[in-house]
């Protein structure tokens, strides 16, 4: 449902399009001036790519940075393509190190050295440190700008440190506590510091720390951070030394990004990474056509199965009528299982060691669903055609649902073991697999029951 804000933004987009084409800059300024930074960002996401830079340049400098930070990394990359080098350099320098790295991941590799060269020595060092971690790791999404304290410091010393670094730190509400070797030994909140006596030591106030390796998957670290409700999760190197923090808002951003990708791939398309209305048609085509080719090739297995059992169909033509029902039911059952298991894996409810448990549970679920559908479908078919056809349909529904649920349940776990995105192994491939195997099961049962 549209909210008043989204409706207002959509109306503004419609209003300024003619002004942009006519290069009536005064009218554009009048249209966007009343909007908040959030609304302007939403407006830019709805504009064609070639109009982004025109509208963005008309924003006041302070508001422009706020708007830029609210855009997705892919939209930021699109906008940079339309800006001058000096504008790009200034924008890049104003970003936090982790946001710079996220943006660099969306830009052509050849552009990275030029942007890094325009930074100050300190900012270049911070950004390069984050860039040094593998893609997909939380080290590449952490902020190296934090405030820490020492276990032997007093409350007064810790608060003084907060005041000195407050302008540069990503957050000050949770402070990692370090020992003499910079290893994380605990955390202390700003609330506890402000409510304690100045002479108290940090060792008296600190709580046990939850930390994560910089080499861990960004999605896993973000899920852990949000599940624990942490304002900031300390990120450590292989020796347990503090190298950065993952803030709660960055964790939420990572999860939104990952869930968008998973949702797209489960539907058989590549994620757009930019709003739909701002995506060129050629990009929409590219995001879908590869998967369609893959699935079309997979669908030839179904055709081969049907051609192999063509003599069986010729003897009992009624069998052909139920093919869409059976393969559709099997595909839907497998997709349901895959979606459920993929979600449970993302939440950490299922681990690789649970493969056998998942297999048995989904076999039980699939057989129960198949028995219920088989009784109903078989009875109706027996009344309309004949009892033997009804028995074939009932047994096939039982077998296909059991097979589909089992395969759909374990395929995401197999994908994770092979270090492949589970979403890729989900709905499209499972549907194709179940279509082919379901037909084989169907015709084998038909041959056995009908003696043909």
Give the ordered list of helices and strands: HHHHHHHHHHEHEEHHEHEEHHHHHHHH
Spans of at least 5 consecutive residues with low confidence? none
Helix content: 55-70%
According to CATH, what is the topology of the largest domain? Tetracycline Repressor, domain 2
CATH superfamily of the largest domain: SLC41 divalent cation transporters, integral membrane domain
Structural class: mainly alpha
Quickly count the helices.
22
Beta strands, count: 6
In whole angstroms, how far apart are the ends?
56 Å
Under CATH at level 1, the class of the largest domain stands as Mainly Alpha
Order of adjacent strands in the largest pleated sheet:
1-2-3
Strand residue percentage:
5-15%
Note the main sheet: 3 strands, mixed
On the 0 to 100 scale, the average pLDDT is 83
The second-level CATH architecture of the largest domain is: Orthogonal Bundle
Number of domains: 3
Shape: globular
Whole-angstrom Rg = 29 Å
Keywords: CBS domain, Cell membrane, Magnesium, Membrane, Metal-binding, Transmembrane, Transmembrane helix, Transport
Subcellular location: Cell membrane; Membrane
Domain CBS: 142-204, 205-263
Transmembrane segments: 289-309, 363-385, 392-414, 429-450
